[in-house]
Specification:
mainly alpha; 2 helices; about 0% strand
Length: about 50
């Protein structure tokens, strides 16, 4: 098992790449959620302005 994680001396780079990719995906999901909430708020505000 230790050899699997060590990967012939390249484990740091391999697992580091996986970690960076996971962080990038998590960041993208967080940013998408934030943009969606902002767009919904803007649409609600525009809808309220149209009603008046």
């Amino acid at each position: 098992m230790r050899d699997f994680f060590h990967m012939g001396g390249y484990g740091f780079f391999v697992w580091g790449s996986y970690g960076m990719m996971a962080a990038a995906i998590a960041l993208e999901l967080w940013l998408l959620r934030r943009r969606r909430r902002h767009a919904i708020r803007q649409a609600e505000l525009n809808s309220q302005e149209d009603d008046q």
